[in-house]
Design brief:
single chain; alpha/beta; Malonyl-Coenzyme A Acyl Carrier Protein, domain 2; Alpha-Beta Plaits; globular
C-alpha cells in the first residue's frame, strides 16, 4: 500500500449512537471521551450513547464531540501500530482534529478552543436568523453570482466548496433563501438545508475571529509532525503564527475542500482515509475513480481500512 492521506470531518457528522461498535469494551476510544468529558465538565460518552438529539446538535457540544471522536479513532489507529499518513487535512472544524493528531496542538488546548468556538458561533445565530444550504449541480462562479445578487443589505457567502458541483452557502436566513432560489433558476439539481444551527464560514463570523485570536495566542502551537493542509490557503504551514492566522481566518472564510483534494492527488497520493463517525468526506470523493477511499465510521470499516493500508507495512 502506497502513501495515503488522513481526512477529518467537520460538523454534521454527529449523531446519537455514533461509534457504538467501538464501545463494546473499555478501550482508548472510551478513555479519550472520558478525558474530554472531564475537561469540559460534561459527560460526552453518555451524550453520544443516549443523546438527546437536541443536546448533541447544540453547537458547543457538537464541535467537541466530533473533535473527540476523530482524536479517539486516530489514537486507536496508533495503538494498533497503524501506518502514519503522508498528509492530513480536516474539513472546517476537522482542521483542529488534524492539528491535534499531527502533534501541533495539545488535545486539551483544542478542546478549550473548540468549546469556546462553538459557543461563540451559536451566540451569533441566536441574535439573528441564519441558514446553511447545500447547492448541488452548479459550479462556484454561478453560485457566487447568485449570492452576490441576493446579498443587498444582508450577508450570504460561499461557505464551502466541497466538490466541483457541491457548494455550501451560509449567512442571513433570508439572503441564503433568496440565493438558493436564484440557484434553482440557474439550474441547480438539488438544494437542501444543512442540519447546523449556525452560519459558519461567512462574514457573520468575523466578530468572533478577534475572540478566537485571543485564546489562540494563549496556547502553544508547534510545527505539525505530519503536514496538514489548511482550509483557507490550501497550504501546509509549519510556522506557529501562520497556523494560528489560518485558524482565525478559517471561521469566516470559504473552506476550499475541492482544492485540498486536488492538491493531495497532485502530490500522487490516491488513497484517502476518513477518520470520523460518518462517511461525509468519503462520499464527496467516491466519484473520483483515481482515488481509493476508506472510512472508520464503524469498527468493521475501521478494520477493513486498517488491514488494507497496513498489509504491506514492513
Amino acid at each position: 500500500m502506497n502513501s495515503f492521506a488522513m481526512l477529518f470531518p467537520g460538523q454534521n457528522s454527529q449523531y446519537v449512537g455514533m461509534l457504538s461498535s467501538f464501545l463494546h469494551k473499555k478501550n482508548i476510544i472510551i478513555e479519550t471521551f472520558n478525558e474530554a468529558s472531564d475537561y469540559i465538565n460534561y459527560n460526552l460518552l453518555k451524550l453520544i450513547k443516549k443523546g438527546p438529539d437536541l443536546k448533541i446538535n447544540q453547537n458547543k457540544y457538537t464541535q467537541v464531540v466530533i473533535l473527540t471522536a476523530s482524536v479517539a479513532i486516530y489514537r486507536l489507529w496508533k495503538t494498533q501500530n497503524g501506518r502514519l499518513p503522508s498528509l492530513m487535512s480536516g474539513h472546517s472544524l476537522g482542521e483542529y482534529s488534524a492539528l491535534v493528531c499531527a502533534s501541533s496542538i495539545k488535545f486539551s488546548d483544542a478542546l478549550k478552543i473548540v468549546f469556546l468556538r462553538g459557543k461563540l458561533m451559536e451566540k451569533i445565530s441566536i441574535i439573528r436568523p441564519t441558514l446553511m444550504n447545500v447547492i448541488v449541480g452548479l459550479d462556484k462562479k454561478i453560485v457566487k453570482m447568485a449570492c452576490s445578487i441576493s446579498s443587498k443589505n444582508s450577508i450570504v457567502n460561499l461557505a464551502s466548496i466541497n466538490s466541483h458541483n457541491q457548494i455550501v452557502i451560509s449567512g442571513d436566513k433570508k439572503a441564503v433563501y433568496k440565493a438558493s432560489l436564484k440557484c434553482k433558476k440557474f439550474g441547480a439539481k438539488n438544494i437542501f438545508k444543512l442540519n447546523i444551527n449556525i452560519a459558519a464560514h461567512c462574514d457573520l463570523m468575523k466578530p468572533i475571529s478577534e475572540k478566537l485570536k485571543e485564546i489562540l495566542n494563549m496556547i502553544v502551537i508547534r510545527s505539525p509532525k505530519i503536514p496538514v493542509i489548511n482550509n483557507v490557503d490550501v497550504k501546509c504551514e509549519t510556522n506557529n503564527k501562520k497556523i494560528k492566522n489560518a485558524l482565525i481566518r478559517q471561521i469566516y472564510s470559504t473552506v476550499r475542500w475541492n482544492e485540498i483534494i486536488n492538491l493531495i492527488i497532485f502530490k500522487k497520493i490516491f488513497i484517502m482515509l476518513e477518520i470520523g463517525p460518518k462517511k461525509i468526506l468519503t462520499n464527496l470523493i467516491k466519484k473520483n475513480k483515481d482515488v481509493t477511499s476508506f472510512n472508520t465510521h464503524n469498527l468493521k470499516n475501521f478494520l477493513i481500512a486498517f488491514n488494507e493500508i497496513n498489509k504491506e507495512k514492513l
